[in-house]
Structures are given as C-alpha cells and as structure tokens.
Amino acid sequence: MTHVSCDICGKDMTPGGATRYVVKMEAFAATDPAELTDNDLDTDHVEQMAEMLSELEETGEDGPAALPARQAMRFDLCACCYHKFLTDPLGREGAAKFDFSEN
Length: 103
Hints:
By secondary structure, the chain is of the alpha+beta class. The protein has a domain of 52 residues. Helix content is 33%, strand content 17%. It has a two-stranded antiparallel sheet with strand order 1-2. The radius of gyration is 24 Å and the shape is elongated.
C-alpha cells in the first residue's frame, strides 16, 4: 500500500481515505527576444569567449554556479491546504503577518 501525506501539514491521505489534490509547478528562466544591433554583428564573440575561458583558467575558479534551466515540482495537498494554496499561492499573506514587538 502506498502512503501519501500532505506536503504542507503532513496529514495522512492514504489512497481511499481523504481527498487529495496534486499541485504541479514549473520554474524556468524567462527569455525575451533580444534585438540585434550593428555592434552585436561586429563583435567577435569567439574571441570574447576565449578571453573569458583564459581568465577562468588563470583564477582557478570553476565559473559561476549554473542554475537548472528548468525545475518541475509536484506536491500532494489535503483539501484544507489546497484551498489555502489557491487563496495565496505565493504565501504573501503568511509572510506579512509577522508582527514584532517594540522592545
């Protein structure tokens, strides 16, 4: 038997029991089409890449850490957490509720 629990509150949602909802999200870098200029066409991009590689070799660095181009996520939610998610998918309300005392 497969055990399923809510990824937010941990409630048991074993198949045949409580209703569960699946939320799928995908995150990726947005790219806007760039306009080519005369300067872009005149630049020697191969030479620029060679210079960048030489600099990396001299400094011994691995270069900037690469972020994944695309990240897909899947969450199982109970009915209560699902409705809370639909109301505030980015969690902005919860983050704004912190009220620190004036000490």
